[in-house]
Amino acid sequence: MEFPVGIEVIKILGSTVQVIFCTAFSEFAVTSYDLDAVDYLMKPIAFSRFVKAINRIKSKERTEIKNIDISDDYIFVKTEHKGKLIRISLADIDFVEARSNYIAIHRGHSKTMVYSSLRDFEQRLRSSRFIRIHKSYIIDSYKIAHVENNAILLKNRSERIPLSKTYKAGFLDQIKNRLLL
């Protein structure tokens, strides 16, 4: 069976683009879904049906954005300065602190403010080196100098970062393989 040019193009592009087929022919619907099409609209297309298809793409994009894997060795963050993206090495991050609608990424002597919630940032981290220790703090476990009661001190930092009762059990569970008692 010879396919229309549009289907051939989608086969070449693969899953790199999201596609909504709009056609007067129903015979290629199954093929379109085999190619991971977001939707298949038959002409004449009702506006409400078109909007529904567009919302599927938007929903899929939001899911993909939230699931960006930043487990490599760096991330890009959009700062408070319009249009500016900063590349941050994960190894440089000492801790991340919630500040209202922003997070402060502390690294060395610098701090980068990013419009994000701590929860969203935590969900995007795939690296086991980062541990949530408080409703307002995530730390790099590789940089722990010592734990003292309900506070953590990081190497080369003077701040005492609180370890809350809510997160203490999870923290101890994550470091249990390194405990020598």
Textual characterization of the structure:
- Residues 1-58 form the Response regulatory domain.
- It comes from Flavihumibacter stibioxidans.
- It is a single chain.
- Residues 64-71 have low confidence and may be disordered.
- β6 and β7 (110-115) form a beta hairpin.
- 14% of the residues are buried.
- The chain has helices at residues 5-13, 29-34, 47-66, 118-124, 165-175, and strands at residues 20-23, 39-42, 74-78, 85-89, 95-99, 102-107, 110-115, 130-134, 137-140, 144-148, 151-154, 160-162.
- The protein is α+β, with helices and mostly antiparallel strands.
- The termini are far apart.
DSSP strand tally = 12
Q: How many domains make up the 3D coordinates?
A: 2
The share of residues in helices is 25-40%
If strands are numbered along the chain, what order do they take across the biggest sheet?
7-6-5-9-8
How would you sum up the major sheet? 5 strands, antiparallel
At the first level of CATH, the class of the largest domain is Mainly Beta
N to C succession of SSEs = HEHEHEEEEEHEEEEEH
Task: Name the features.
181 residues, alpha+beta, OB fold (Dihydrolipoamide Acetyltransferase, E2P), 2 domains, 5-stranded antiparallel beta sheet, 29% helix, 31% strand
Q: Quick gist of this model?
A:
By secondary structure, this protein is α+β, with helices and mostly antiparallel strands.
Layout of secondary structure:
Blueprint: H1 5-13, E1 20-23, H2 29-34, E2 39-42, H3 47-66, E3 74-78, E4 85-89, E5 95-99, E6 102-107, E7 110-115, H4 118-124, E8 130-134, E9 137-140, E10 144-148, E11 151-154, E12 160-162, H5 165-175
Parallel strand pairs: 1-2
Antiparallel strand pairs: 3-4, 5-6, 5-9, 6-7, 8-9, 10-11, 11-12
Domain Response regulatory: 1-58
Domain HTH LytTR-type: 82-177
Protein name: DNA-binding response regulator
